[in-house]
Design brief:
Elements lengths: L1 H24 L9 H11 L3 H11 L7 H13 L3 H12 L6 H18 L2 H11 L6 H15 L2 H15 L4 H17 L4 H14 L4 H13 L3 H14 L4 H14 L3 H14 L3 H15 L1 H14 L3 H11 L7 H20 L3 E3 L5 E2 L15 E3 L7
Antiparallel strand pairs: 1-2, 1-3
Helix pairs in contact: 1-2, 1-3, 2-3, 4-5, 4-6, 5-6, 6-7, 7-8, 8-9, 9-10, 10-11, 10-12, 11-12, 12-13, 12-14, 13-14, 15-16, 16-17, 17-18, 18-19
Length: about 400
């Protein structure tokens, strides 16, 4: 209640100023405050903010000098979460036939934002479409329309709006548009759509952003489902050129595709190339498993120990401990200590959140292509460093 009263005090002061200002302009030497002003104050003092708002808002007549005041007041209510009050103020503005075109556009934009805050997306969309016709409000309107189409999952409309927004303000939105195309491809895949149509959408995503890792991973999954293993391998191999940070996401798909065509040697050669290019702990661990299977435990321990000296990591150390735990070890005390260490490291890894947004710092257990916190696209990546990759 007291927060509402503090909000109304500036409005009451503004009403008094406006009355005095209008009286001075009319030449009256002793301006007289109308009865409504005292009635509004009375409501305010009696903790009846709703009725006080109605009185003060009615008193401040809408003209060219008070439009900004009404817009500011409406925005203030919207930021406080009182969208219904913001809607009434902005609707009152739009209803005035005396508004200049630019003032009407500003009111349309703010009313659209009110509806957007209230979750009335259809009404907000209609207002933003009208407001974008005014050059001074085009960018803000297109940004709001883009937000609506993302919320509604209207990805084709989102791509078209992003293209117009890109032309309007010059900021590249190629990454976002590629992600919108990937959303279309994923939806069609969930609906068991035509694989050729999905491939065409993924080609569009890559055309929009040639570094779109998500399009490559989706293509690898699609080719896997079709049994086109070599195409799946090629899609996985594209990731290292697009964004090496996402190599850990491609490795399970690459391994499955190589093993499906009995190309274990090819998989090991590809891991060696990745080790030279991007020596992440996932690459090191996968290669150590192949070395253990092909050359034995000692060779795997030697390889892993060499890698850990150059690139220490918790996951790598945990794997090294596992390799050193042997059932036939004649030293039970050593095996007991190693087992305790393994349990400690596994507990540490269980608490670790493997993904982090490079834009806002959000951390999560799974990969989101749009950050749940800052809503940015392609900013969540596997963690780097001692506890990550």
């Amino acid at each position: 209640m007291w927060q509402a009263l503090w909000l109304l005090l500036p409005l009451a002061a503004l009403s008094g100023w406006w009355i005095g200002h209008r009286s001075t302009r009319s030449g009256s030497p002793t301006p007289r405050l109308p009865a409504d002003y005292f009635q509004g104050l009375n409501y305010l003092l009696n903790e009846q903010p709703d009725r006080a708002i109605e009185v003060f808002t009615r008193m401040v007549e809408v003209d060219s000098e008070t439009v900004e005041t009404h817009l500011t007041l409406g925005n203030l209510f919207r930021r406080r979460g009182e969208a219904d009050r913001a809607v009434r103020i902005h609707q009152n503005l739009i209803a005035r036939p005396s508004l200049a075109p630019e003032q009407r556009a500003a009111a349309l934009l703010e009313l659209g934002r009110d509806y957007l805050a209230a979750g009335l997306l259809d009404r907000a969309e209609t207002l933003f479409i009208e407001a974008k016709e005014f050059p001074g409000f085009r960018v803000q309107s297109l940004q709001s329309l883009l937000e609506i189409y993302q919320q509604e999952g209207e990805w084709e409309a989102a791509i078209a709006t992003a293209q117009r927004l890109q032309r309007a303000d010059g900021r590249s939105l190629q990454t976002e548009m590629a992600q919108f195309a990937c959303e279309q491809a994923e939806r069609l895949r969930r609906q068991h759509g035509d694989p050729s149509a999905i491939r065409q959408i993924l080609r569009r995503a890559t055309h929009l952003d040639r570094n779109c890792v998500r399009a490559s991973l989706l293509k690898a999954d699609l080719e896997r489902d079709e049994g086109r293993w070599r195409s799946a391998i090629k899609a996985c191999q594209a990731v290292k050129h697009q964004d090496p940070d996402y190599i850990p996401e491609a490795l399970p798909r690459l391994e499955a595709a190589c093993l499906a065509i009995n190309d274990r040697r090819g998989y090991r050669d590809e891991l060696k190339r990745l080790l030279d290019r991007q020596p992440t702990v996932s690459v090191i661990l996968n290669l150590s498993e192949l070395i253990e299977a092909d050359e034995g435990r000692e060779a795997a321990v030697e390889f892993l120990a060499t890698q850990l000296r150059e690139r220490p990591s918790v996951r790598g150390l945990n794997r090294l401990i596992e390799l050193n735990i042997q059932d036939d070890d004649m030293d039970p005390r050593r095996q007991r200590d190693l087992t305790v260490l393994r349990e400690l490291f596994q507990a540490l890894l269980a608490d670790r959140l493997p993904y982090r947004c490079v834009s806002c710092g959000f951390e999560g257990r799974q990969l989101h292509w749009q950050c749940p916190s800052c809503r940015a696209w392609s900013t969540i990546k596997p963690r780097r460093g001692l506890e990550g990759e």
